[in-house]
Structures are given as C-alpha cells and as structure tokens.
C-alpha cells in the first residue's frame, strides 16, 4: 500500500486527486495539505510514502516544502512528485534541485498520474527524455543559474560512470542505458547507484541536474559533453 499525501491549495483539485488515488486498491490518501508548511508537517505525522506536491502554495511554496522534506533525516524515505500547470515552468528545475523525484503537469491523464505515483514510490525518477531534459538545459544555461558541482565533480567518476550519467541526463532508464552501452540491466543499475553515492545525489533527478551543472551534458544546441 502506497501512502500518499496530497498538497495543493485548491480544494477541488485535492478532492479530485483524492478520489482518483483512493480508487486504486494499492494506494491510500493519508492526508491533504493546503500549504507547504502543512505538507511538511503532515509528511512527518501521517507517515506518507509519497507527496504529490503543487509548486504554487501559500505560506511556503512546494519548492520550499520539498527542500525541507529532503533535508529531514526522519523523512529520508519520503518521495516528492511535483505538479505544475505548465511543463515550461522554470520552478521545476528548482524543485528537482530541492529534492523532488519528478514532475507532472496538472492536465496529465488520471491513469498516468497513478502510474507516476507507482514509479516514484518504487524509487525511480519520473523524467521523460524530451521535455525534462530540454527544460533543465534551458534553465541551467541562463545567467541566473547558480553554480553547480563543477567539472571537478566528474573526477570522482570512472569513464563508464560518466557515460552512464550522460544517458541518465537524457532520461534513459536502466534498460535503455544497458542497451546503449551493451550492459546488463543489473550492471547499469549498479553503475547508477554508485554514481549517486559518489555525487551524494538523492535520486536520478538529482543526477540529471548534476550532469548539466557539471558540464557533462551541455544545453540543447551545444551538443553533449563527456570523454
């Protein structure tokens, strides 16, 4: 049973999501929050496995709430799936950097939302090869983007790990990485886990951010890095 917390400042949206999630026999809605502060508090008290988090909320927005959840050792197992109105929302990158495991637009089909909850709850990241990578590249290439781990961070990685990281940044799952590099899915998964440990990344979403900020993968139009 996946314990889901819904965080959105719109009552009708929460009600709709609650009905949808509650219709799945493998999921349970354990709480609803109208603000970011409520989301953080309920994540602790309701023992949620996953928070479906709206970005724009009063008191504390979804990004701030995600950051607090990710930084709380007692909530280490709690995953965050952020929601946004548009897939071009620059705040998505901030949410991923804060610790979210993926994002969805609010007009996502009901079945896709349930599938996304299962994916993120299972420890995977919800990152599509196209829109997510393009969005992250665009935002991180902007002058206001904060400095990332830098090229030196890649020195901790082996040549194979750099190749794997570049493919993760393009949205490939373990099977896709394995097929691209001629590896077994288990070996690909092992490489991803080791990279996460070396870069102290919370999940694959954080690896995507690291790949772009370090320069291993450059913004769309500039090609891909790595040697």
Automatic annotation (TrEMBL):
The modification 4-aspartylphosphate is found at residue 54. InterPro entries: CheY-like_superfamily, NreC/VraR/RcsB-like_REC, Sig_transdc_resp-reg_C-effctor, Sig_transdc_resp-reg_receiver, Tscrpt_reg_LuxR_C, WalR-like. Keywords: DNA-binding, Phosphoprotein, Transcription, Transcription regulation. It comes from the Bacteria. Residues 150-215 form the HTH luxR-type domain. Residues 3-121 form the Response regulatory domain. The keyword Secreted does not apply. It holds the Pfam family GerE. The keyword ATP-binding does not apply. This is Response regulator transcription factor. It comes from Streptomyces castrisilvae.
